From TrEMBL:
Domain of life: Bacteria
Function: Required for formate dehydrogenase (FDH) activity. Acts as a sulfur carrier protein that transfers sulfur from IscS to the molybdenum cofactor prior to its insertion into FDH.
PANTHER family: FORMATE DEHYDROGENASE (PTHR30592), SULFUR CARRIER PROTEIN FDHD (PTHR30592:SF1)
InterPro entries cross-referenced by the UniProt entry: Cytidine_deaminase-like, FdhD
Keyword check for Phosphoprotein: no
Gene from which the chain derives: fdhD
Iron-sulfur in keyword set: no
Keywords: Cytoplasm, Molybdenum cofactor biosynthesis
Compartment annotation: Cytoplasm
Main location, first listed in the record: cytoplasm
Pfam name, any one: FdhD-NarQ
Protein family per UniProt: Belongs to the FdhD family.
Full protein name: Sulfur carrier protein FdhD
Gene3D superfamilies tied to this protein: 3.10.20.10, Cytidine Deaminase, domain 2
Length: 292
């Protein structure tokens, strides 16, 4: 997997009281870590943002980040992406600077803002729900998608089956984009993993932009963490009608979802989930009538 993972020697402490642990409580072993490195995003020659991410799918990350910032929303607005020269102390190319060329008629954002995004931060500068609504070019509220409750509940397990970097490291988030067919069966379109949950979503959205799929009507975004305001924002700007998370949403995330007509589900654990906004999209299961 190249620079996605890194192997390190560690000291493992085993304190379970077993005979082997009593004799050798500290063991030397090799562990696998998810790589985290900075990525500088440039618009032309102007520096726009630095984000901490797991290397890989960097062009998707940059494209998705620009969608999430409201800078672009169609593939034609993004003319090109390329890695710029950059070397570490050993003279090895780092591939940690990406230059995006936008179409001449695309207004440049305030590059003096110098957005810094950590792997745990996604919004960094947006002040209100109203600001998000003004920058959105899609209307998830009008999306006619309806999804069976059992199908929605099955998505975390489908996501988990494809989390290869998590299998190796246990240290990355995942975002999976599912298309719900006319037969109600979910199909995984794209899955991305990253130390930053916001980066994982940006990589999915960037992939969709570059494939010419925006707005992402009839889709569900399943994430491995919580449903934050930032993730709802990213879903809204990509035209995704349903966001499902294995953990809780925040209050502001729910308010933003309601304002933009998104469905937000949380605590999705295979056999149950909570719907915090947009419950009308969920097809309720039929109650089981006990036999006499």
């Amino acid at each position: 997997m190249g620079r996605v993972i890194q192997r390190r020697k560690v000291h493992k402490y085993v304190l379970d009281g077993s005979p082997g642990a009593l004799e050798y409580p500290v063991r030397h072993r090799e562990d696998v870590l998810a790589v985290e490195e900075p990525l500088e995003i440039r618009l032309g020659t102007l520096s726009y943002s630095v984000t901490m991410r797991t290397p890989g799918d960097d062009f998707d990350l940059v494209a998705g980040f620009l969608v999430s910032e409201g800078v672009i929303w169609t593939p034609g607005q993004l003319v090109s992406l390329r890695f710029c020269a950059g070397e570490d102390e050993n003279g090895v190319q780092t591939f940690n600077v990406v230059e995006a060329q936008l179409r001449p008629d695309v207004p440049l954002p305030d590059t003096g803002r110098k957005v810094y995004t950590s792997s745990s931060c996604g919004i960094c500068g947006t002040d209100s729900i109203e600001a998000v609504r003004k920058s959105s070019h899609f209307t998830p509220e009008a999306d006619p998608l309806e999804i069976d409750a059992q199908v929605l509940a099955s998505l975390p397990a489908l996501l988990r089956k494809s989390q290869r970097v998590f299998d190796d490291t246990g240290g990355v988030h995942a975002a999976g984009l599912f298309k719900i067919g006319d037969d109600g069966v979910p199909r995984l379109l794209c899955l991305r993993e990253d130390v930053g949950r916001h980066n994982a979503v940006d990589k999915v959205v960037g992939w969709a932009l570059r494939e010419g799929l925006l707005p992402l009507t009839g889709t569900v975004l399943q994430v491995s963490g919580r449903a934050s305001f930032e993730l709802v924002q990213k879903a809204a700007l990509a035209g995704i009608p349903v966001l499902s998370a294995v953990s809780a949403p925040s209050s502001l995330a729910v308010e933003l979802a309601e304002a933009n007509g998104l469905t937000v589900a949380g605590f999705s654990r295979g056999t149950s989930f909570n719907v915090y906004a947009g419950d009308s999209r969920i097809l309720r299961p039929q109650p089981v009538v006990p036999s006499a």
